[in-house]
Amino acid sequence: MGFVGSLSHAVSVQLSTGFHGHGFPTSSKSSQFVGIPTAPAGNATAGLSLLSSFPCLSRSGKRLVVFSKRLSGLEEAMKIRRERELQSTTKVRKRPPLRRGKVSPRLLVPDHIPKPPYVDTSELPEISSEYQIHDSEGIARMKAACELAARVLNYAGTLVRPSVTTNEIDKAVHRMIIDAGAYPSPLGYGGFPKSVCTSVNECMCHGIPDSRQLQDGDVINIDVTVYLNGYHGDTSKTFFCGNVDGAVKRLVKVTEECMERGIAVCKDGATFKKIGKRISEHAERYGYGVVERFVGHGVGTVFHSEPIILHHRNDKPGCMVEGQTFTIEPIITMGSIECVTWPDNWTSLTADGSPAAQFEHTILITRNGAEILTKC
């Protein structure tokens, strides 16, 4: 059953004989609900018709009580999630928890390649308050950076197979980026030691490449950002390694669809909060959680700037503007949306060890929609 964001109308019936319908918790004093056809809200005639259609529903009040309640979008989403969890018969194969491998030394970048300003400090840069809106020249440079990032990500995906280490993927990505005359944006950002993020299984994001070999059945998000001609292009994708469980495959598929639905609402004048609404609606249809801690962001000459893009339901003010560029990058989980972070201060895992997936595109706002700049 699909989730609809608008308020829904439900009818609760409690028989005096002690029979109760299937229920779920709400703020109402009554939580007993049965599968009776519901009348549209405010339609008194339909309500009378409902009573006449079911003889057991007496107007005397002696045999039953009829409760009417309007559910909020959040309450209905929670109900749908619980129902899907109960109905699901697919079990995810239990995998050993992710362990940190050995992290090799930072790779070198030739002196002739221009570097972003944060490279010379280990401090995490502040999120810029500047909304990055580009003229025609800036858009052309953004497109070039994003096109390179997409090609690098596509190449990185071809390397994913059992026994390959995430460190080997990092080395290959690093080489391809510098060969193109660009700088790998993550390298040195707030002290990040590698040129790409590799997040495996329960790792939500910001995984540091190391000596761990990929295993058959793993999923891995590879997050690539390049700095080319003064502009950053940012993208990521979750890849399958070998034979992946069907339930995890579905998670990955739905996560990509969540990103696509978020992008679909974008255009000049659209509100930012629509993105989180669309993503949440789709994730909740499958009983998945939307991580709130990590967000999308403005991107351009600055790596991270306003607007901050929330992927969950929110009331964040503001509207999109033609010529603006930012990322949409939802993280969707099969379980907890809370995270734990390793002592490296980067690697963030789901608190309950459940699988997570993420997809990301950089988009350009246009008058009538959004152009995906990192589409390969």
Task: Give structural attributes.
2 domains, single chain, 376 residues, globular, 4-stranded antiparallel β-sheet, 21% strand, alpha+beta, 17 strands, disordered N terminus
How would you describe this protein?
- Substrate binds at residues 206, 304.
- One of its GO terms (cellular component) is chloroplast.
- Its EC number is 3.4.11.18.
- It catalyses: Release of N-terminal amino acids, preferentially methionine, from peptides and arylamides.
- There is one protein chain.
- With 376 residues, the chain is an alpha+beta fold.
- It has two domains: 8-87, no CATH class; 118-372, Creatine Amidinohydrolase.
- The chain has six helices and 17 strands.
- The two termini are 34 Å apart.
Broad structural category: alpha+beta
The residue ranges in which pLDDT falls below 50 over 5 or more consecutive positions are 1-70, 86-90
CATH topology of the largest domain: Creatine Amidinohydrolase
Overall, the morphology is globular
Task: Characterize the main sheet.
Answer: 4 strands, antiparallel
